[in-house]
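Example record

One chain of 357 residues, shown exactly as stored in the release files.
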Amino acid sequence: MEQMQQAQQEAKEVSVTPTQTVTPEPTEDPSDPVVQKKNLIAAIEKAVEDNNVKTMTADLRYAAEDGQIGTYEKEDVAAVLLHLKKNQDDYQAFVEKLQDESVTVGEEDGVPYLLLTDSNLRKMTGTEEPVETVEAEIVTPTPTPEGNGKKVAIDAGHQAHGNSEQEPIGPGASQTKAKVASGTTGRTTGVTEYQLNLDVSLKLRDELEARGYEVYMIRETNDVDISNAERAQLAAESGADILVRIHANGSDNTSVAGALTMAPSTANPYLSQELIAECQKLSQCIITTFCASTGANNQGVYQTDEMSGLNWCSIPATIVEMGYMTNPDEDTRMQTAEYQQQMVTGIADGIDQYFAS
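Predicted structure tokens for this chain:
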């Protein structure tokens, strides 16, 4: 009897429970221009965060005076991304401009993009114009009698404190790497790689200036925080003709010694074939003269597509691995003033040869 009464009570409770109707959330229409504009702005905000030149270039266009639709230059987009990432006020102002009703949604082959009215993306975002453009607007500079009209950017590899935050290894890449490391340390001397790189880079600057080059230094102190992608972009923005990145090597095998340069391979997905060829040419010139000057074992040009500092370049670039800090003899030798001058002379000779050929 108790069981029957309990069953009746449960049935009664079930019968009086109201049925709840769930109203589905309204879905956004992806073909709605308002929705498309919102999604495109979100994609551009993500592109700034990821330093993604490919996305930014694809999602932004401008209406030219002749009525044609124009595409922003990748060099300009790269400079703007770097500027917006470092200048929050300009970034917020840029996002607000994208939300303005004057910015509409266009479409090419079924793919939407934001159509802007301003063809100068740098000016629109407060990004400085390239050095050469500014100079051309004011006056065409005449090289001094000692000058040769060429400009070299020097990047002393690494820095005192690494930055393990990730960045794409190249424009539009899904693969990421740490922004920058602090480098290796001399097995015998205990000198850090970032200090050796800076010491040699400063001497290289003096040598190149004595030969008539204009020099742009990515860093002149160890207390910086500049990612490898940013270093490549800064070099291009400076108006330099080439970028030389100074590094030292390391190996688990302490008997390994010698010098090498690094260049992108012909399969590199981020650079044009013309730029790849120039990077390889620059690398070959420098390693040949470097080893001739120092007597170091020539390990040749190592081709790699995994180096952010090369993949983000828009000018010819090379990485110079001067020697192995894990080799006791080479580590000690690279700390002497005499050998450092030999290294500097060898690199400068290679730069001379590159521009002469």
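Notes: Residues 131-145 have pLDDT under 50 and may be disordered.
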